[in-house]
Design goal:
With about 425 residues, the protein is an alpha/beta fold. The protein folds into 2 domains: about 5-175, Rossmann fold, CATH 3.40.50; about 180-419, Rossmann fold (3-Layer(aba) Sandwich), CATH 3.40.50. About 30% of the residues lie in helices and about 25% in strands. It contains 14 helices and 23 strands. The chain has helices at about 20-30, 50-55, 75-80, 90-95, 105-110, 125-130, 130-140, 165-180, 215-225, 250-265, 315, 330-335, 355-365, 405-415, and strands at about 5-10, 35-40, 80-90, 115-120, 145, 150-155, 160-165, 190-195, 200, 205, 230-235, 245-250, 270, 285, 290-295, 300-305, 325, 340-345, 370-375, 385, 390, 395, 400. The protein has an 8-stranded mixed sheet with strand order 12-11-8-15-18-19-21-22, sandwiched between helices. It has a 5-stranded parallel sheet with strand order 2-1-3-4-5, sandwiched between helices.
């Protein structure tokens, strides 16, 4: 998802530098081109060769800086899209805030006029020191984004705030800075996912094979594009960015109740906090049409008489006729006025799939339907998918892709529904 993106990764002298190798690999695995910039103290922990072996282009430090090539602190600022400093020590942070540039990392940062992200890493007392806190505040006011440190046992043996954030948190903040889209920024996006669970008793239930992976991928893609994302799901979601609000549900009725509430909230808009960087001194209400991506697989039927406790087979006998009733049709019953609604339809009947999806589009008054055929590499639980994006006047078929990559494509196609 970061193909053609170019990232500068600054590393300063902290024991957390070992995580920077993992972060570098995460960036390169996502397709980004990465160059590491090191301070002299950083090289006391890890050699430049280690970063180059892990995927960095030629490391920029005092020994490799060249004015015969573009490997210098001015030209990398022109060639790269974002500067991520992780770990950022107290020394680096306090120098940055005062415009001091006595090493190549600081010189690069001072000349870099694109998005910059800091991931602080230091002892708790150093982090809480009034000078460090004042520096962090000043850097925020001057456009730096912070991946806040976490509380845990530190290398010095004490427990407290100051440990560098997890690699995934840093990765997602950087990816969001690179991929955010003005269309999605400050816009609500609600995603539902997973197969609903309809209880027979307290140990048995009716459900389906939906894994919820495409819903998780959609939530991540929308977050990366800048939306305010809420995910209502029956399934666990791996590596979900912390800013995504998660609502765990079981039944169709629970999902419907949460969905009604969140749609009502979404229609009111987003209240932006004061932001001195953009001359916003008062809270501002931003009202963009919300989007609903209904990727959940809602059970068509539910037990008519769900039981408390566990039904014993001695009570049931040799045969069990389970009485079912039709479940609530969430997409037909929610209030869709003022919200772009996209349904998802899984089909196994390739011959009639498109016709069935078009019927769904009209019968449930949807803006679009994402149709996927459950077979081969796109079967339930797979990491790949293929969809046909269907509206009233067109159908766009995607190739088979990783679900996150496909989700990013869906966010682009879906923009046309409110343009």
């Amino acid at each position: 998802m970061l193909k053609d993106k170019k990232i500068l990764l600054g590393v300063s002298g902290s024991i957390a530098i070992y995580k920077s190798i993992e972060l570098l690999r995460r960036f390169t695995k996502a397709g980004a081109q990465v160059k590491v910039v090191m301070t002299p103290s950083a090289k006391r922990f890890i050699t430049p060769l280690a970063f180059e072996a892990a995927g960095s282009e030629e490391v920029l430090d005092e020994h490799t800086e060249s004015w015969h090539t573009r490997n210098n602190h001015i030209h990398v600022g022109e060639d790269y899209d974002i500067f991520v400093i992780a770990p950022a020590t107290a020394n680096t942070i306090n120098k940055l805030s005062n415009g001091i540039a006595d090493n190549l990392l600081l010189q690069t940062a001072l000349a870099f006029d694109k998005p910059k992200i800091l991931a602080p890493s230091m002892n708790t007392k150093m982090y809480q020191n009034q000078f460090t806190q004042a520096s962090l505040k000043l850097l925020r006011l001057n456009g730096y984004q912070m991946v806040e440190p976490v509380t845990k046992e530190l290398a010095c043996g004490t427990e407290g705030v100051g440990a560098m954030a997890e690699v995934e948190d840093i990765f997602y903040m950087a990816a969001k800075a690179l991929l955010q889209d003005p269309f999605w920024m400050d816009r609500y996006a609600i995603v539902t996912g997973g197969g609903t669970i309809e209880r027979i008793d307290d140990v048995r239930y009716i459900s389906n094979f939906s894994s919820g992976k495409q819903a998780c991928a959609l939530a991540k893609a929308l977050y990366l594009k800048g939306a305010k994302v809420e995910l209502i799901t029956t399934k666990e979601c791996q590596e979900l960015p912390k800013e995504i609000e998660l609502f765990k549900v079981e039944s169709a009725q629970q999902m419907k109740e949460y969905l009604d509430e969140r749609i009502s909230v979404a229609k009111k808009g987003i209240l932006k906090k004061p932001d001195l960087i953009n001359d916003l001194t008062q809270p501002q209400l931003v009202q963009k049409k919300p989007y609903l991506f209904m990727a959940a697989a809602v059970s068509d039927y539910r037990p008519k008489y769900p039981q408390k406790g566990k039904l014993k087979k001695e009570q049931i006998g040799d045969e069990w006729c389970l009485e079912l009733v039709k479940n609530i049709d969430i997409l037909s019953s929610i209030d869709k006025e003022g919200i772009v609604t996209i349904g998802f339809k899984a089909e196994m009947d390739e011959k009639n799939a498109l016709e069935n999806a078009q019927k769904m589009l009209r019968a449930k008054n949807l803006d679009a339907v994402c149709l996927n055929l459950v077979k081969g590499p796109t079967t339930f639980g797979s990491d790949q998918n293929q969809i046909v994006f269907i509206t009233e006047d067109k159908a766009i078929k995607s190739p088979v892709k990783e679900k996150l990559e496909l989700a990013l494509d869906i966010t682009e196609i879906a923009k046309a529904l409110d343009e």
